[in-house]
Design a protein that fits this description.
This protein is of the alpha/beta class. The protein folds into 3 domains: 21-145, Rossmann fold, CATH 3.40.50; 168-394, tm_1862 like domain (pyruvate-formate lyase- activating enzyme, Alpha-Beta Horseshoe), CATH 3.80.30.20; 400-455, OB fold (Dihydrolipoamide Acetyltransferase, E2P) (Beta Barrel), CATH 2.40.50.140. The protein has helices at 2-18, 33-48, 72-91, 102-107, 110-114, 130-138, 186-190, 198-210, 233-241, 261-269, 286-291, 298-311, 330-343, 360-364, 371-395; strands spanning 24-29, 52-53, 62-67, 96-101, 120-122, 143-145, 168-172, 174-175, 194-195, 215-219, 227-228, 231-232, 248-252, 276-278, 316-323, 347-352, 400-408, 415-419, 425-429, 438-446, 451-455. Strands 2-1-3-4-5-6 form a 6-stranded parallel sheet, with helices on both faces. The protein has a 5-stranded mixed beta barrel with strand order 17-18-19-21-20. Helix 9 (233-241) packs parallel to helix 10 and helix 13 (330-343) runs parallel beside helix 15 (371-395). The longest helix is centred in the C-terminal third of the chain and has 25 residues, at 371-395. The structure holds 5'-deoxyadenosine and iron/sulfur cluster. 5'-deoxyadenosine (5AD) binds next to strand 15. Iron/sulfur cluster is lined by residues 31-32, 34-35, 68-70, 101-102, 185-186, 189-190.
């Protein structure tokens, strides 16, 4: 046996001598789910070029960071990471560093000047040209492509999900955004809205289901306005849900103005479409909503919430809120708090307004709410939501929910963690169960953020 092993080793040594060692890449992702999905496309492109993944930036020949530009602090985080890459590059000058995604698109060539370790700048619609940009760097130039596109959906590229849990996956169904909310940089970084052909979406979902995935999330900046020929979002949702009753379907993000009843009835019709809607409200005050260029008012938004509750009783609802938008008064801030009580969101993502250069708000309005007011208002809405989330979780006590297991709980490998159809995280003792299982769990305890329970038969 021993000699055999020795012989095998010798053979592999000879092999290594003939084939050049593969180049390694390290890809890091910031920002939203869309960026995670984009990084999976970039991974596919790099693997196709013969690259292999590196465990850490210092082991890589190519370091890429897929970035977010939505708030200033998202960009600051990337810049501090770039300073670390710069240090690595001082020791290994041949390392190529690239910035991808929204921050690349926003800052373009300026990034090369401001961050001297950066060799490559590639925007969200130009990932196909990444090999070309790398080549540019190998030939002594910088590799920049920030061209936006009206057509690119990467529909023919099969994403490679290296960092995933093997249970849940994102599928990008559209790109860009035409909404032009006055605070938002996304229309500038991700370009015009376009939908991906349904056949390639269905194919991708079917392949995932065949591989044993149990949940897909259909992604876009505004999925409810998905349209490709005759196929609208409700049709698409139905088609994906019909692939396999054991494949859960989620989607994100919905905009209130497009969250029509036909989508709600499709969610109702299929057991495997999760009973969960993320519906960003941003503010509870009509004047602020108008300044934000959101095309609905408070009353319209609340009607949509009521429609969701009526058509889909028990449906989970979450939202996004921006606090301290230009000229927001204390009374207008209180309107947001009162809307939160009225809507009873199960959870919420809450942010301080961050002015983004080039947006309508940056050009037209003053970012005049003092930082300390923004911070206090943010703490107030966070506290409000904590209380509402806690009451919502208390209502789940003594109820049984079907949990799709995603992995071990963060605290202990003796516990598993997964989500209910309503998107609540439920933790329970592992027993014989494993990731990918559907487990019926009786909720016995809760915190404002998590439900805890016991499996039942
Ligand atoms: N400042 C703060 N939050 C923002 N968002 C978008 N742009 C900004 C900004 N300039 C928030 C919105 C959006 C979420 C993804 O990020 O709430 O729904
Ligand atoms: Fe995602 Fe928007 Fe951030 Fe771009 S700017 S990564 S689209 S959240």
């Amino acid at each position: 046996m021993d000699t055999q092993v020795g012989q095998m080793e010798e053979i592999s040594v000879t092999k290594e001598k003939i084939t050049a060692p593969k180049l390694k890449f390290f890809l890091e992702t910031y920002g939203c789910q869309m960026n995670i999905a984009d990084s999976e496309l970039v991974t596919a492109i790099l693997l196709n070029q013969g690259y292999e993944p590196a465990p850490a930036p210092a082991d890589a020949d190519l370091i890429l960071t897929n970035t977010c530009a939505i708030r200033e602090n998202a960009e600051e985080r990337v810049r501090s990471r770039l300073r670390e890459f710069r240090k690595i590059k001082l020791h290994k000058p041949d390392i190529v560093v690239g910035v991808l995604g929204c921050m690349a698109e926003r800052l373009k060539e300026k990034l090369l000047v401001e961050e001297d370790c950066v060799d490559i700048v590639v925007g969200p619609d130009a990932y196909r040209t990444l090999p070309f940009c790398i080549n540019e760097v190998n030939e002594g130039r910088k590799g920049v492509n920030v061209q936006l596109s009206r057509e690119e959906t990467y529909s023919d590229i099969n994403p490679v999900r290296l960092g995933g849990n093997g249970v849940t996956a994102y599928i990008s169904i559209m790109r860009g955004c035409d909404n032009m909310c006055s605070f938002c940089v996304v229309p500038f970084t991700r370009g015009r809205e376009r939908s991906r052909e349904p056949e390639s979406i269905i194919r991708e979902a079917r392949q995932l289901s065949d591989k044993g995935y149990r949940e897909v999330t259909l992604l876009g900046q505004n999925v409810n306005s998905y349209r490709y020929g005759d196929t609208g979002f409700a049709n698409l949702l139905g088609m994906v849900a019909s692939i396999n009753p054991l494949l859960r379907v989620r989607f994100s993000t919905s905009n209130p103005q497009d969250m029509t009843d036909d989508v709600l009835y499709t969610i109702k019709k299929f057991d495997n479409i999760c009973k969960y809607v993320h519906l960003p409200v941003q503010s509870g005050n009509d004047r602020i909503l108008q300044l934000m260029n959101r095309s609905y008012n408070r009353q319209y938004y609340m009607e949509r919430i009521k429609a969701i509750r009526k058509i889909l009783p028990g449906c989970g609802i979450s939202t996004d809120i921006i606090t301290g938008f230009c000229s927001e008064t204390e009374i207008e801030h209180k309107d947001t708090i009162s809307l939160m009580h009225e809507a009873e969101f199960d959870f919420a993502y809450m942010f301080k307004y961050s002015e983004r250069p080039g947006t309508l708000a940056a050009r037209k309005f003053k970012d005049d709410v003092p930082e300390e007011d923004k911070s206090r208002r943010l703490s107030e809405i966070i506290q409000t939501q904590q209380d509402i989330s806690y009451s919502s979780n208390l209502k789940d006590l003594n109820r049984v929910y079907e949990v799709l297991v995603e992995g071990n709980s963060r605290k202990s490998s003796r516990y598993l963690s997964g989500r209910s159809s309503m998107n609540k995280v439920i933790v329970f003792p592992a027993g014989e169960h494993k990731p990918g299982d559907y487990v019926k769990v009786l909720v016995t305890k809760c915190t404002p953020a998590t439900l805890l329970g016991e499996p039942v038969n």
